Amino acid sequence: MPDYAQLNQFLYEGKSKDVQRLTQEYIDEGLPVDEILNEGLIAGMSVVGEDFKYNILYVPEVLIAARAMKAGLAIIKPLLTARADDTSSSGTVVMGTVKGDLHDIGKNLVCMMAEGAGFTIIDIGVDQPYENFIATAQEHNADIVGMSALLTTTMPYMKKVVDEFDNAGLSDTKIAVGGAPVSEMYADEVGADGYGADAPSSVELFHKLCASA
Ligand code: B1M
């Protein structure tokens, strides 16, 4: 395994072009994509998160680092979304970040991996009210609705969405939740059908939820 410190550092400094170049170099060298993702990109973003927490970094720097993260993910995306068998869909998933919340890197990663696993993904983006989750799920006859929240102030909105699905008579639609402050226990508390800790486990969860539908 190479020393991913250089990639971590480029991400921390928000150097998008260097992040893209080095990510591509690692792919060309044949390094495992999940290793580049976890050790290079996600680990770099964790340091950003820590320094943000302790006011060593501020919103503008974090935004630039997030842009660099997205630049790296764009290089990896084709490898994550390439399907082994693209003839049939494993199921349809509507994914979005809840109202009031603008974080989308983790959600996007879940979308990419689920797409690679054969799911049809309808990504409705960030800051989404329950009405959009419901309307999109109905329009696409979704098997699963996945919600992301990164803020302790926005995670309670997940319960609102679950409740509104029930009120609309759509309790058959499986609801999955995730995001850094969310836990299995919280998922139970809001009445969701499952919790995804990270992108790979979310894909496993989607398979399980579709099988139990
Ligand atoms: Co913000 N931010 N941020 N931020 N930000 C956090 C979340 C924070 C923990 C930072 C900190 O203090 N250490 C903190 C929240 C504290 C809290 O709520 N208790 C915080 C704050 C406070 C804020 C603002 C309020 C700051 C301000 O304005 N003063 C503000 C809020 C804006 C808003 O949303 N209304 C804000 C803004 C921003 C930026 C815009 C600058 C930027 C987001 C850019 C973007 O997403 N396009 C940003 C970032 C980048 C972060 C951190 C540093 C990194 C998040 C990230 O992308 N991680 C974050 C620190 C942290 O999380 N430690 C932080 C990498 C990503 C791969 O991981 O998103 O956890 P994650 O996703 C994982 C899993 O959680 C899971 O799978 C993913 C892949 O493994 N997952 C799911 C995620 N969603 C899922 C959905 C599923 C399943 C699994 O559905 C089924």
Key attributes of the depicted protein:
alpha/beta, 213 residues, five-stranded parallel beta sheet, binds CO-5-methoxybenzimidazolylcobamide
Descriptive account of the structure:
With 213 residues, this protein is of the alpha/beta class. The chain contains nine helices and five strands. A five-stranded parallel sheet has the order 2-1-3-4-5, with helices on both faces. Helix 6 packs across helix 7. The longest helix has 23 residues. CO-5-methoxybenzimidazolylcobamide (B1M) binds next to helix 3, helix 4, helix 5, strand 3 and strand 4.
Helices and strands, with pairings:
Elements: H1 5-12, H2 16-28, H3 33-53, H4 59-81, E1 91-98, H5 105-116, E2 119-128, H6 130-140, E3 144-148, H7 157-167, E4 174-178, H8 184-190, E5 194-196, H9 199-211
Parallel strand pairs: 1-2, 1-3, 3-4, 4-5
Helix pairs in contact: 1-3, 2-4, 3-4, 4-5, 5-9, 6-7
This protein binds CO-5-methoxybenzimidazolylcobamide.
The pLDDT mean sits at 95
The amount of helix comes to 55-70%
Major beta sheet, specifics? Answer: 5 strands, parallel
Shape: globular
Approximately what portion of the residues adopt beta-strand conformation?
5-15%
- The number of distinct helices, counting runs of at least 4 residues, comes to 9
Please identify the structural class as seen in this structure: alpha/beta
Radius of gyration: 17 Å
Q: Which ions and ligands are bound to the chains?
A: CO-5-methoxybenzimidazolylcobamide
Could you list the spans in which at least 5 consecutive residues all have pLDDT below 50? none
Distance between the termini: 41 Å
Biggest sheet strand line-up? 2-1-3-4-5
* Element string (H = helix, E = strand): HHHHEHEHEHEHEH
Q: How many distinct beta strands?
A: 5
